[in-house]
Amino acid sequence: MDSLAVVLFQALHNNDVQLLDYCFQNEDEDLIENTLKKLQQTKVLALIDKIIERLDSQKNTFNIMVWLKYLLKHHASFLITKTETVNKLAPLVAMLEKRTINYDKIYKLKGKLDMMLDINETVRKQKKKQKKLNIEQKPLVVYEEGKNYDFVE
Question: Model pTM?
Fold first, then answer.
């Protein structure tokens, strides 16, 4: 077991909030994944409870979501066998649905804005190109007043 796995086990075993906070502050995804691979199955449900508590109480939850991602990745087969898993994960599912309810609308808006900006950029480039062509183009005929011009038919 590596050191973070030991600290996590101690934090869950002793219900030590400070140690758990220390673990959750870690941003190294490889270390988080390796730590959760080594987590004993007896501590998986306890960790889910702690993750849900953190998600309920914090606005910045990216690190916690990383922990949840790897916990579910490596312990899904265990969680499927437990009947209480559905009840434990129900608040988490509801919270995630609540937080992501507007994502579809936002992505549609983003797509429309990107399209409008692309069109605007294309028109701007075409105008710039046209203006450049008009400046560099030599006139076909130059008329000078007072000069005699013979037009041949």
Answer: 0.65
Contact of 40 with 3, CB cutoff 8 Å: no
Helix axes 29-37, 62-81, angle to 10 degrees: 20
Q: What is the pLDDT of residue 112?
A: 92
Contact 51, 71 (CB under 8 A): yes
Could you report the per-residue pLDDT of 88-131, keeping only the tens digit for each? 888 888 888 887 888 888 989 999 999 999 999 999 988 888 77
pLDDT band at 149 (very low <50, low <70, confident <90, very high): low
CA end-to-end span of the chain, whole Å? 99
52 and 65 in contact (C-beta within 8 Å)? no
Judge whether 35 and 8 are in contact, CB under 8 Å.
yes
- Residue type for 126, please? Q
